Amino acid sequence: MGGHFWALIATWTFLCSIRVVLADESFEQELGLSAFPDVTKVNVSQDEYTRMMRTYLHTLRESMDNHSVPELQTFDAETITWHPKKKYVTRLGFSGVSMSSEMEIEQADLRILVSSFVDAPSPTIKIYQILSARRRRLLDEKVVYLSSTASKWCEFDVTSGVDSWLKGNRNLGIELQCAQCNNSVLQPLQATLSILVYTTPKRVRRSSPYNYEEGGRTDCINGEKRQKCCRHTMKVTFKDLKVPQISSIIQPKSYEAGFCKGRCPYNYNHATNHSRIQSLVHKLDRKAVPRVCCAPSKLAPLDVLRVDPYDYTKLNVEKWDNMKVLECACS
User: Fold this and answer.
1) Is residue 217 a contact partner of residue 325, using CB atoms and an 8 Å limit?
2) N- or C-end of the chain: fewer Cβ atoms within 10 A?
């Protein structure tokens, strides 16, 4: 009985693993990608990050028809200190971070270079904003994948902390905590803040060359009870999709994808002549032919900065086709 039970468990585990692999492959295929990198092996240097982030931002400026695009600013830690009584606590000082109140933060990442680590290859590191001598605020927490033979770069989201400095809170630095780490891991060889910031008042912007906020041709009108086919807003945040490989996307963290929904009454906003004919035939015989449906009629690509799937130390700027809905029609 016991042997049969464990055999069933082993079989179920094997089938589940196959299902996960197939799901990942399907996700790659649906996006038209050849591969995703192994996130446990990603190790992008600060020089490579800075170079390719600026290339990505330049690409955005060209594709967005001069709509506001942030600038990249980097600040190295001036001080790295260790808590005298707690070996698993390290403090980073960034007193040189100077920004005016007119600036606006898009994204702020703390990137640290940590030494090789044998004891626990995947410890959990917590990042805190220091508010006072006794108060801390958690900014980010993640499992990092270290190497037993080489130093590795790790990245953390500290946007809310840097934004609070911009709004007048005292800049007392950032604290790293890792109960599973030893001193060598929490003594970063290098620590850098990489900040995407709007240095001038930003104009209307979205991640496309179209200015939706001023009203697209098929954008939905707020307050309409029974909306006809129109474009609704839909913000997609990549980390919320719960697909491990998608964490290799560096930028954008999120984007406005949009979707189509609404009624398609007779002779309303047809996408093609075929949809007009289908609408007429449906009116004659509703059982034989379905009503036309609200669907995207114009799509746009998305510029993406992500880890090279074949060289985990490099970044690529890519254009992913058909990622954003621009207009909707009955089809």
Assistant:
1) no
2) N
- What's the confidence (pLDDT) of residue 29? 60
Q: Show me where the domains of the chain are located.
A: 70-199, 218-330
Contacts of 315 (CB under 8 A, 6+ apart): 44, 48, 49, 52, 53, 250, 305, 306, 307, 308
At 124, list the tokens: 């959990």
Compute CA 50 distance to the chain's CA centroid, rounded to the nearest angstrom.
17
The pair of three-digit structure tokens given for residue 271, joined into one six-digit string: 């996408």
Report the alpha-carbon distance of residue 165 to residue 159 in Å, rounded: 10
What is the distance between the alpha carbons of residues 133 and 135, in angstroms, rounded to a whole number?
6
Calpha distance 41→145 (Å, rounded): 7
CA atoms within 13 A on the CB side of 213: 8
Beta bridge partners of 94: none
Question: Using CA atoms, how far apart are residues 92 and 80, in angstroms rounded to an integer?
Answer: 5
- What architecture does CATH give domain 218-330? Ribbon (2.10)
Q: Is 228:327 a contact under the CB 8 Å cutoff? A: no
- C-beta of residue 280 within 8 angstroms of C-beta of residue 247: no
State how far the Cα of 207 lies from the Cα of 255, in Å rounded to an integer: 6
Please, what sign has the CA dihedral across residues 138, 142, 147, 150?
negative
Residues in the chain, pLDDT under 70: 1-34, 64-67, 83-85, 101, 118-120, 182-185, 201-216
Indicate the class that CATH gives domain 70-199.
mainly beta
Structure tokens at 165: 């400095």
**Among 210, 252, 215, residue whose Cα is nearest residue 235:** 252
Characterize the bridge pairing of strands 230-232 and 152-157: unpaired
